[in-house]
Amino acid sequence: MIKQNCRVTENTEIAPKFFRMVLECEKVSIKAGQFINITVDGFYLRRPISICDFDDRTITIIYKIMGEGTAMLAKTPSGAYLDCLIGLGNGFDTSVKCETPLIIGGGVGAPPLFALAKKLAADGKKPKVLLGFNTSQEAILVKEFESRNIPVVLATLDGTAGHKGFVTELIESGYDYFYACGPLPMLKAVYNNTETDGQLSLEERMGCGFGACMGCSIMTKGGAKRVCKEGPVFYKEELLWQTQE
Amino acid sequence: MADTRVKLCGITLKNPIIAASGTFGYGYEFAEYYDINVLGGISIKGTTKNSRFGNPTPRIAECYGGLINSVGLQNPGIDKVISEEIPRLKKCFENLIIANIGGFSVDEFVYSVEKAGECEDIGIIELNVSCPNLHAGGINFGTSPVEVGKVVSAVKKVAKKPLMVKLTPNVTDIAEIAKVCEAEGADGISLINTLLGMRIDLRCRKPVIANKMGGFSGKAVFPVAVRAVYQVYDAVKIPVVGIGGVSSARDVIEMMLAGASCVQVGSANLVNPFAMKEIIEELPAVMAEYDINTLSEIIGGAH
Can you give the CATH number for the domain in which B167 is found? Predict the structure, then answer.
C-alpha cells in the first residue's frame, strides 16, 4: 500500500451515473483486482474503488454514483488532487494454469475484470467475457474489451442489448477456469452454476480498506478473512456459500 | 529539545501516543508501512476468552466527522493471541504493549486477565467493560457502578500487571464509575469508548449496521472525550488516558491539558494509516508553539 496525492486528469460520465476517472500517480506496482481508497472532500471514511486499468503512471477507475460520497467524487474537476491509498487487496491470482478462462461481470463489478482480461491475454490465454447490466445504456467497457480482441457476450435485465436476463444464464461449457466480480446474488449464482474452479471478487462495506478495523470480515473455510486485506478476491473453494443455502 | 516522555502506571513512554484497541490490529500489520517503534504504545485488538467471529456485516457506517462500527470483538481468543499474535508484534515492537480484554461474564474476564498477566511482553491490561454481562440480563458492565465494581475487584485479584479500565461514555455520571474502579484497585482509567449510535439507509429504510446500533467514534466525538477526561481527572488520583477523536498534535495537547497522562489514537488510523506517525512528527513543533518544553508538565493544566 502506498499513500499518494494523485492528480485527476479525467472525470467524465460515460453512462448514466457511471464515471471514468483517470489519476496520475508516481510509479506504483499494482495487480489486476486490487483497489484504491480515496479521500472524498467532506466525508470521514475513504471510498474504496476497484482499479479498471493502469500503467506505470496512471490509474483508471470506473465508479457508479451509489450515495453521497460517490456523488461528491463525481464533482471532482480535472486538475484536482485526491489523497489515495493505492494497491489495496490481494488482486486476482493469474498464475493458475488455464487456457480458456471465463470472465463474468455484473454492473459496476465489470471494471476490475478489464485489467484482469488484459493480463490474461498478455499471458497468452484466451479469455471470454460475459457482462450483465440493467440496461444497454449502462453497458460499459464492451468496446474496450473488443478492441483488444477479447470476445464479449452481453446480457441486460430489460433486454435492450444482448440476452434478456441474468448474465449467469450465459454460462456455457468450454471454459477451464473462471473469474467473477459483481453483486452478491450474481456471485452466488456464478458459484452455483460453474463447473470449474475459479475466483470471485467480493464487495463489502469497509472501514479502513487496509486490514485494521475488521469491518469487512467474512467467514471462510480457512476462518475469518478480511475482504479488504486477504480479499477482495477469494478462491471458489474458500467460500462457504454452499452450506449457507 | 522537546521532551515528549510521559509515565503511565510506572512505565515510561517515549511519547504519549498509543494506538487505540480495534483500530490498529495487532500492530505488526502496520510495520510494513512505517517503523511502529515511533509509537509510545499499542493497545491490541480487543480479546476475549473464546475466539469470536463477531457480528454480521455491514459492520461500518459513515457519519459526519466519524463512523459507527459494530465489529463485535472479532478475535482468535486469548490463548492464541498470547501464543501467536503477541510474539509477532514483539518481533517488530519494543515499546508498551497493552492487552485489551473484553468479556461476557466476570469469570471470562478473570480467565483472560490471568492469562494476559502471565505474558511478560504485555505491560498493561486494559479492561473493556463496554460488553453486555450475559449472566446479568445483558446489562452493559460499564454502565452500572455495581457491575463494573464486581469485575474490577475480581480481576484485580489475579492481574499480575497494572490494570486500566476503559470506560464507556454512555452513562449518566462517568466520574462516579471511575471512582468505583479506583476504589476496587484499578491502576488507571482510559476513556472514552465509543458513543452508541445509529444510521438509517434512506433507500431500504433499515439501519445501515446489521446489528442496528454501533459505536460512534472519530473527530466529532473529541469534545465529548475532552469533557469526560476533565471530569474523571478531577474525580480520581490514578492516571487517565484520553481517547476519542484525537487526530492531531494539538488534540494531544488539549487532551493532556484536560488531564490525560497520554492519549490513544483510534479512528484516525482508519482513514490515514500514517496518522500516529504524523502526529508524533508534528508534536515537537506544536509544543514549541505553545511554549511547552516538557510535555508531562502540562497534564491537567486546564484545571
Answer: 3.20.20.70
